[in-house]
Amino acid sequence: MQLLKTADNSGYIRIEEQCGAAITLSCDNDNADIISLYIPEEKRREGIGSLLVSAANQEVYNRGIKTMEANFSNNIKGMKKLFEKAGFEVSDNAPICSVSMEKLLASKKIINTIKKKTDKAKFVSFDMLKMKQWDTFFKLISGQFLMLTSKDITRFSKKISGLVYDEQGEIRAYIFCTEKEDHVNIDYLGTSDSGDSTYIMEALKGMVNNLIVSGKNQTYPELTAVCVNDNATKLMKNVISDDLEVIGMALRAKKKISDEERVNIEIYEDHDDDLYYEWDREIAKVPMQANIGLKTTLYRDKNN
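Given the sequence above, the corresponding structure tokens read:
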């Protein structure tokens, strides 16, 4: 088996096996996140996944990073066993909820939410944000438990992701959505004011409105959501639809890399700019967490 590594200056590393299997990492000074792990179906159960994880282990260790994490759905067969075998501690992270688009748009709750007008809050989608608003937005998320970079933001749908502002122009809520093959996924739904549900409701209302206006509700038959705590799950059911059901669990795998785990796997480096461009675009197309559209670390609130 021959491994080929491509890396860029922003901390992304992709290691690919000659059959097309690949693992993609996002690295900073302290931690590495596995954001994509793909193995062709006909090549599974041949040890390629374990090889790629070991290669990632080696690359991370060589960079002086001692912690590696991954988020994935328990619906992906064999993934939990793969990470546990590689020495990761795997734990429940967040429930994955789902509702059909038909039921969503027919829900009395969402209809009433859309009809309800407020002068207190305003939803602005990503494609309508100005540069100054982007600067304020990044300052906000840097102070919260959202490990997002500008590169992560580019993967969210510009039409149905957005921010909610109050009368003073302060950001009070946000909703980030990704578009998958057959569904739209709510990756993040949060607020800077947990005591007032008005802003969260406005974020959900803005997302649904833009789904309809952009015609994306006819493109995707299903809406899914990763709810980072129990309160978020209740909120989704209370505001969106009683038909929202939990279809799976997002799992979190984490390990500390020690000196004893050092491996010696031969990895060839590639500096082909065209190849880098291609794999960079592919990150969002074949994510390990295909069932949930999760791109960054989720932090489950243990107090809720």
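The radius of gyration is 20 Å. Try to locate this feature in the token string yourself.
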